[in-house]
Every structure is written in structure tokens, then in C-alpha cells.
Amino acid sequence: xxxxxxxxxxxxxxxxxxxxxxxxxxxxxxxxxxxxxxxxxxxxxxxxxxxxxxxxxxxxxxxxxxxxxxxxxxxxxxxxxxxxxxxxxxxxxxxxxxxxxxxxxxxxxxxxxxxxxxxxxxxxxxxxxxxxxxxxxxxxxxxxxxxxxxxxxxxxxxxxxxxxxxxxxxxxxxxxxxxxxxxxxxxxxxxxxxxxxxxxxxxxxxxxxxxxxxxxxxxx
Length: 220
Ligand SMILES: O=C(O)c1ccccc1N[C@@H]1O[C@H](COP(=O)(O)O)[C@@H](O)[C@H]1O
Known about the structure:
It catalyses: N-(5-phospho-beta-D-ribosyl)anthranilate = 1-(2-carboxyphenylamino)-1-deoxy-D-ribulose 5-phosphate. Belongs to the TrpF family. InterPro entries: Aldolase_TIM, PRAI_dom, RibuloseP-bd_barrel, TrpF_fam. One of its GO terms (molecular function) is phosphoribosylanthranilate isomerase activity. Its EC number is 5.3.1.24. The structure is a single chain. The strands form two sheets. Strands 1-2-3-4-5-6-7-8 form an eight-stranded parallel beta barrel, surrounded by four helices. The protein has helices at about 20-30, 50-55, 75-85, 95-100, 120-125, 175-180, 200-220, and strands at about 10-15, 35, 65-70, 85-90, 105-110, 135, 165, 185-190, 195, 200. It starts with 10 loop residues before the first strand and ends with a helix. By secondary structure, it is α/β, with parallel strands linked by helices. The protein is globular and about 40 Å long. The chain has a single domain, classed as TIM Barrel, CATH 3.20.20. It has seven helices and ten strands. The structure holds the ligand O=C(O)c1ccccc1N[C@@H]1O[C@H](COP(=O)(O)O)[C@@H](O)[C@H]1O.
């Protein structure tokens, strides 16, 4: 994707919410999407019922994203039924058929921390033809996301013909530089806007949004 950057607005996804009040504030501050984590082992994992309650705190025109990592099919179905996310995000070894099987557009997270075998742009498209976009995250293949660590942004494949989201260790302090360096469709952050896992910090969310807006004014 190589969009014109004139009047460009980098989309912002805040992920890993556990409290409805944080969701409300994130929407007021200008988040485009709010993520709920259902990946086993995550400190931010919530039950479908909790996510459903938080979804009701979403402002109009803000997307709900449900995040999984090799979850059983029935768990994903239950989340789709209860939470009605507008987008799914898969961080495990799921294939395209699995990801498409829920009838909801999906993002496929790509591990950028290890070997980059098969991550040539055309190979990505062939592996995930049904993906609405890709999310480049810092973990190694088989590792977990939400680490708060960055990866070498130069490793992002050039010429991916779908929107991509930059993730992994993005914070209010580096998001300006990250956007200028990679020109992503959007940025996704979990740890960088928290005071503790799952607890979002209002000041950090505000600073993050301000820095994204500053970067968008800078990009030509
Ligand atoms: O947030 C989590 O706990 C999580 C667990 C398992 C897979 C992904 C997870 N989060 C996603 O990881 C990236 C980067 O997060 P961070 O900003 O480095 O903390 C982001 O896409 C989160 O949505």
C-alpha cells in the first residue's frame, strides 16, 4: 500500500482494555479502534462477557477489534456472537481459511522478531489472500505479542499491497519517529499507553494521539 500522504490520517488502535472507563476515554481522545484480547496467557485477557460490556462503552464510529492467538474455533465464535467485533486480529499460526471462517474481516499479525521466511510481500498475500491487512509486530514466530518491544522497522516488507499496521513497543515517545520511518496505515499500541498491564493511562493515551497528529502534519 502506498497511499498519498496528503491530508493523511494515520489510524490509531489502542489494544488490551479491561475497564469500560478506559474505553470511553480512549474514544474521546480520538482512538479509531479499541482492542480486546482473548489470547490465552495474556495479562490483558478478558472474558466475552467483559468485552461485551466494554463494547457498549464504545462511541459511534469507533471499531471493536477482537484479538486471538491460536484460540479454539468455538472460543472465537462465542466472542463474535457476544461482542460483535468489526475486525478480528490473529497473532498465532492460523491460516487464511481459519481466519476467514468467522465471516468478519481480519488482520493477520506477522512476527517480525525472528526469521523472516515467507514474508516477502507476494508470499504474504498468497498465504493470506483474505486478510483485510497485516499487522507487523515484534515477537518471533511462535512467540507472543504485547511485549512492549520494538523491532527493526527496516525489516517491514516493501510493497505490501494491503494496508499495514505497525505494532510492537510503540509509545508516545517513539510513535512520531515510527510513523515517519514506516508510513503505516495505522499504529497499534498496548503496553505503551499503560500504567500496568490492562490499565490504560489517560495522559499517555492523550500524548500518543497528539504525537500521531503531529506526525501526520509532518508527512507529505
Ligand atoms: O496485548 C497482549 O497482551 C497481546 C497478547 C498476545 C498477542 C498480542 C497481544 N497484543 C498485541 O501486541 C501488539 C504489540 O503490543 P505492545 O504495544 O508492544 O504491548 C499489539 O498489536 C497488541 O494488540
